[in-house]
Amino acid sequence: MIRPRALLDAAVGYVRKNPQELVHVAKNAAGGRFGVPIAALRWFAGNIPAGKKTPKDIAIEATPPALRLGATIDALGTPIRASAAIRIEDVKIGTDSIRIGLRLRDIKLDPVASADGTDSESPVAALLKSGALDLSKPGNILKFLPKKPAFILEADGDRIVIDLMKAPQLAKNEKFRRALSVLAPVFGIDTIETDADHLYVKLAATARGLPEAIDAFRK
Asked: pTM here?
């Protein structure tokens, strides 16, 4: 777990090195848009506590309007270098759901060679090398998985729709669910996109849901 103190120190250090970021934040906040520096995402990814199933060597870069992610993962005992450009098309926030529609493009899955330089001969590595998987349409692969994760609602072509609230960690988090019931009626997300240095989130606010938010807060 990343300590709050370490996160604060990193944020202060970044602002000291990049004082223009404060002006950038103020300018965007006036329009309801908030930017997260790509460098901050890299720092966060680089400080995730190591674990047996934790992705390694995480790489993050902007490919506007998408975000490209790469990491070394374990696929049934076979180390794989995976990367993809992720474009978030729409976000719908409800009192009991966070539904995200995204596109996965330019996917690459490459088996990682062993320390002595020899290629892996596992079934997973053989499948990837065969070219039998159509990586241009990851949704079609997910659609036919016998045990796909519950948070994947739709999958077709390069588009995938997920609901974060169906992920066990969030579904069981009562504090998060209560906060969502208060915020969802009045706040939403209009767009999420990138430029060369930032990931931008544009918020959408409405007063129509204020009575529902107040009622949820009272409860």
From this structure: 0.84
